[in-house]
Amino acid sequence: MKLNDVKPAPGANQPRHRVGRGIGSGWGKTAGLGHKGQHARAGGYHKVGFEGGQMPLHRRLPKRGFKSLTRASVAEVRLSDLQDMKAGDIDLAALQAERVVPRDALAAKVIVSGELKRKITLKGVKASKGARAAIEAAGGRVEEPAAPKVEKKLPKKDKAKG
Q1: Nearest 5°: CA angle at 20, between 14 and 24?
Q2: Chosen CATH of 71-143 out of 3.60.110.10, 3.20.20.30, 3.40.1010.10, 3.100.10.10
Q3: Mean pLDDT on 40-53
């Protein structure tokens, strides 16, 4: 067999329909659009999901779920990743330097996956309860990032106009 002998299977390539080319073609007169009505006219289509004015399905069903906008910016770190790192004091910059988390990560969280057998200090990186227990069991410690202070603004009281 040679490349110039290769051909598609019989019936695989069919010529395209040329509509509106006379009665003998089988696609003449109405060109497959039928008689009258919205779908027979030029420009006679509604947007996807339009149900003739009835409340569409996507609006009849209740809203479900939640997609966090910050999910992609918080990277997961496994205990086994911390075991393989060279640094003893681990913060976000150290994780990014050793390419454990992506450079665009704004935060990181340590999860329980794998084993940790060496002493480390975790600074400014969140840890799950199990991960915290595993780090402390190995002789290390976790310094959680300080929670940001949120100032409550009291509503202004309007003085009565008199």
Answers
A1: 70
A2: 3.100.10.10
A3: 86
